[in-house]
Amino acid sequence: MDANRKQMPSERPSTRRTMDARTSGRAAEVVERVLLASAEVLGEVGYAAFRVEDVAARSGVNKTTIYRRWPTRAQLVAATMRRMKPTADGVRGDSLREEVLAFAKELTRFHDSKFGCGMIRTIQLEQDNPELEPLIRDIRLEATRARIAMVERAIARGELPRGTDASLVSDLIFLPFVTRLLRNGERPDQKYVSAIVDMVVAGAFQVTDAKSTKVGKRTARERR
After folding, report:
1. How does DSSP classify residue 108?
2. Domain membership flag for residue 18
3. Which whole number is the average pLDDT over 65-76?
4. What is the pLDDT of residue 2?
């Protein structure tokens, strides 16, 4: 009996860890089911007609369980948008053109998905909604930072001159095809996107050369 008593303390923590892992796994599965169902509902009806009851029915998760984790409709939609939003953070390539083309392809895929349409519509229609405005602002800011990071990597690789305004170049490259896609539904093709990148990069070098020439002339005049 003494031997058995000595073994029990060492066995209990292992049992608790196994039970905790199973509970954690089930909880993660429930969260995933709810967010996927929420994305489908948002994509179908938009935020105005979004109902937690519909998410519960589609996910097979009790409405009380959903409200326990996300007390309001806005919190559930916010969690869904954070989980499902497209991101350029994972886009990597050997050149700026390659990264921009990959981003354009991913954005188009997202735009054409049911949830993508719902999320884009929500951002456009609910940007002044006090419940969602902070989230929408953060999503836009994250997207802007990720696009600027692409340009900064291009500068580091020597594809763009040192001192290039990464924010300005990002706007010049991305806004034309992003605006066309989100506002007009015009899907950017590779030729169009590549032409934008090549034109902006060439322009950046011309601006740098012009500045260097101007500085050189000023220096020459000062030496006379």
Report:
1. H
2. no
3. 95
4. 52
